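Pilot study result, target chain (285 residues):
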Amino acid sequence: MSVSKSAAVQPVSPHPVEDDPLHGVESQFPFIGVGSRFRQPVRPLAARPRWERRPLAPGRDPRRAAADPATAVETLLSLFAEFPCEVLANPAWQLAAVADSSLVEALSDDDLARACPHAIREEAFVGLLRDRLGRSNNSVWNAVDVMVELADTPRDILDAIYARWTVLGFRDTSKAFRTLTFRLASPESTVALWRSGLQIERERLAADSLHKVTNQRRLQRSRMTVEIDLRVLAGCVTSHHLIDRVLAASHPGSRLAWVEKLAHDPHWMVRGAACEALATRKAAG
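Predicted structure:
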């Protein structure tokens, strides 16, 4: 049987590369056959972040490095939470922020929350907070919780937080939301209405079942109006528990120096209690 030349040899058209999702794998790994069960389509790698943090070199002073224009911007990112004022005033940071707005977005919620107590009075930092609160795609919830509690948080920032929560339909009985509404109820929220905030803190401690015994002791002590051992009050002045510092600020048995120190406490409730106690002592002569 004779076979014509045209029928015997038929050229095979190459498979179009653009239609073959496995072509990239086979070109990189030629030992993988067509029938291999390890054949997998190529998946694009995730893009690397634009700004990557770089730790400070050992031996360098972190505060000086945060203010040094020669410090790399990636290192400034790692120093921001601890030294926000120095970083924001650094010409290298300012130039980079103007050239690439994604630098500000590289600051995490935790960065802002840790920086708030150090820089809440600085206009540059407050402007950064306004910008982040105004962006609909940003959630800085930890930083918001800190800002609501700080005595020096500007009124317009509290208003911005409330407006943001209103847009999101955020209406609940959380401690942060209730504290915010109490503070916005008075223009002088640093001094006024601190007892309302204290009631929220007492409710929170009473609902905490993990530290039930110690919380009950603190709650009982905070309601004592009779004389308390000065050593106990002295320990409350430097306690990291909010209700202890409020007790030291408001108790009539506290020394004047302690109350004056607590009048500069970063928490709005402690400062309010201390300022009210100082005004009462001054009026009493």
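One observation from the pilot: The chain has a mean pLDDT of 82. A full batch analysis is planned for the follow-on phase.
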